[in-house]
Fold these 2 entries.
Entry 1:
Amino acid sequence: MTGPAVPPAPGPREPLAVAGAGSIGVAFALVLARAGHPVQVWDPFPDALARAHDELSDRLDLLAVHGLVENPVAVRERVAFTHDLAEAVAGAALVQECAPERLDVKQEVIRRAAHSAPDRAVFASSSSAIRPSLLAAGLPDGLRERVLVGHPGNPPYLLPVIEVVPSPGTAAWAVERARTLYTGVGLRPVTVRHEPEGFVFNRLQGAVLREAYCLVRDGVATVDEIDEVVRSGLGRRWSLIGPFETVDLNTRGGLASHAETMGPAYARMGAERGQHDPWTPDLVSSAVRQRRGLLPHDRWQERVRWRDEQLMRLTPLWEDIRDTS
């Protein structure tokens, strides 16, 4: 990232734009408008805009049924739909690009939008895997520093994590502006460094999927049986705590003990799939330091009890969902 200057953080109700009226564009419009922002949704195809309008209303009605939006009518009224890109981005503090997952299409949308957007507008792509340095390549200097990836969980109105991925040329103020805005609308930004393909979300998801496919191929378990392991096991824990905290709490000695006990087995499993990424002592030490900074040893038992109580609290809900699915 470059540039030390930080402009004033965006106000809570600045106008925002969504470029692309597919399902993720509609979802972003909902998140932004629910937080009070006026939102312009652009798409070049009239049919897409009509479909998006209906989809937004349907999602808002469903959220209202579950008490997740207070006034769906007011939220709906904050969202406008247009086939005029200049109109959509005029005055927008952030342009959330939600075009199809093609580099040339996304670049063209950003380039066109920049002609009419404010000079300090940030351009955030919803790309799932395209590196921001590729998106920014060939764009004018003043525009390149305002381009980054803002990759959401899907749907973002239910999964609040969003990956903020700058390129080496993205200005520091643009990253902070995006993070501030996303936080203000209820999302939880995670800054991704070094822009790896797939970022964090899809690299983790991809690792699980690769092994799942291998287990099906090898006849170890069926598709539904593998899903059951996730539904009734991994997924239940991961809905509360991530993989590092999971293994930290699973072993009385914490992360260090888990790495010492299970590290060799995980290394053999990886090698079986042609992956050779051992947990070196330095790597384990770094992870342990980070975990102990988050959870000192003297609070370990307290956190284990918290985990169990949360699982107990959610178990009736999970079982009810399974019984009615």
Entry 2:
Amino acid sequence: MGLTEYREEIDAIDRQIVELFQQRMRVAGDIARCKQETGAPVLDRDRETEKMRQIGELADENMAQYCKMLYNKILEMSRDYQRRLLDR
């Protein structure tokens, strides 16, 4: 396979990532509404700690650090999105 084919593969993967990310954020919005109804705070440190542990276990050893970096950002964006929805 050459550079063009690898880039096409990356483009296809990126389309899937965007679709799944948007789906995840929609669910995060649903969670925000549930939290609002129950009075729960947006940040759940225990849940995030557990999620990061799970991500570390799911990832290959040589990718665990990068997956954790990615999920730190995803969780940050999820909290931001939830707060924006609740501030409306």
